[in-house]
Amino acid sequence: MEPIVPGAMLGLLGGGQLGRMFVMAAHQMGYQVTVLDADPDSPAGRIADQFICAEYADRAALKRLGEQCAAITTEFENIPAAALAQLSEFCFVSPDAKSVSIAQNRISEKQFLQANDFSVAPFAIIEQADQFKNDKVPVAGLFPGILKVSQFGYDGKGQKHVNNEAGLNAAFIDMKSVPCVLEKKLPLKCEVSVVLTRGCDGEVVCFPVVENQHVNGILDVSIVPARVSAETAKQALEIAGNVAAALNYRGVLCVEFFLLENGQLVINEIAPRPHNSGHFSIDACLTSQFEQQVRALCGLPLGNTVLHQPCVMVNLLGDLWQNGEPDWLLVLQQSSTKLHLYGKRIARPGRKMGHFTVLGATVDQALTKALHIKQLIGLD
Question: What's residue 139's pLDDT?
Answer without folding.
Answer: 85
